[in-house]
Every structure is written in structure tokens, then in C-alpha cells.
Design goal:
The protein is of the alpha+beta class. The chain is built from 2 helices and 7 strands; from the N terminus they run ββαβββαββ. The protein has a 5-stranded mixed beta sheet with strand order 3-4-5-6-7, sandwiched between helices. A two-stranded antiparallel sheet has the order 1-2.
């Protein structure tokens, strides 16, 4: 069953219609993108420590060790069908960065790790074998709290 909403954006009213399956499709696309990103990292020599690691309501998509074993990478994966509306990495805003760094702090405390740290973003755009994967190493620095 479809749901409808009317949104007021400035002087415009937009009728939005969401299918009950749209969230399930969105979640499936995200999981597929995370699988693609994990395989990409494995192919590049990274060791995956955890996937979808949670600390309360916060999560980290992928936690991996770099091929040389010196750096722990906390990876946020953004998957999109296309770049029509924006670049996927633009969805990692200050709220998401704060959430990721807090989850990373919890991860480090839990596992008592002594490695260099890095925050990466992997974007997956498209579908199937033609999907484009971009890896932005050191995408952002953690904020100070």
C-alpha cells in the first residue's frame, strides 16, 4: 500500500508517494553496496575486522586494517543508483561524522587497539558489474569534542 505526504518547501507543495517496499529496496541497495565495498577492500589487500559494527544506535559500515597493517580504517559506504541529485559522499555531513567518530572511539576502547586511525568513504554508484567504486582515503578528520 502506498503512503502519501504533502511537503511544504518554500512556496511549493510537493506530493510525495512512498511504496511500502521502497525502504526495503533502499536497505537492499545499501547492503549490496557494502558487500561491493568490502570485496573491493579485500581485493586491495585490506583485512576486514568487522562489518556493520554497532555501538548503541551508532554504526560503522566496515572496519578494516590497511594492507601494511599499520592503520585501522573506519569506512562509511554510500551507495546510489546514479549521481542525478548529488555525489554520494556529500551525504556524510557533520552529524554523520560526529556519529562515526563516537562509534570509532567506542571501538578503539573496546578492542584496546594501538594503530594509526583513518576515516574513509567508499562510494558505489550504479548497479551490477558496471557499478563505479571510489575510495576516498582520509576523507575527514575527527572533530574535537
Amino acid at each position: 500500500m502506498a503512503r502519501k505526504w504533502i511537503c511544504n518547501i518554500g512556496f511549493f507543495y510537493i506530493l510525495l508517494q512512498a511504496n511500502s517496499n521502497s525502504m526495503a529496496q533502499h536497505n537492499e541497495l545499501g547492503k549490496w553496496g557494502e558487500n561491493m565495498a568490502a570485496q573491493y577492500l579485500i581485493d586491495k589487500g585490506y583485512a576486514i575486522r568487522h562489518r556493520d559494527w554497532k555501538s548503541g544506535r551508532r554504526d560503522i559500515d566496515i572496519v578494516a586494517v590497511t594492507p601494511d597493517g599499520s592503520t585501522l580504517a573506519f569506512v562509511e559506504v554510500k551507495t546510489r543508483h546514479d549521481r542525478r541529485f548529488s555525489e554520494p559522499e556529500q551525504a556524510v555531513d557533520w552529524r554523520k561524522i560526529r556519529s562515526l567518530t563516537m562509534a570509532a572511539s567506542a571501538y578503539i576502547a573496546r578492542y584496546a587497539l594501538d594503530l594509526d586511525l583513518r576515516f574513509d568513504i567508499i562510494t558505489v554508484v550504479g548497479e551490477g558489474a558496471t557499478a563505479e567504486i571510489d575510495h576516498i582515503e582520509g576523507a575527514f578528520l575527527p572533530p574535537r569534542f
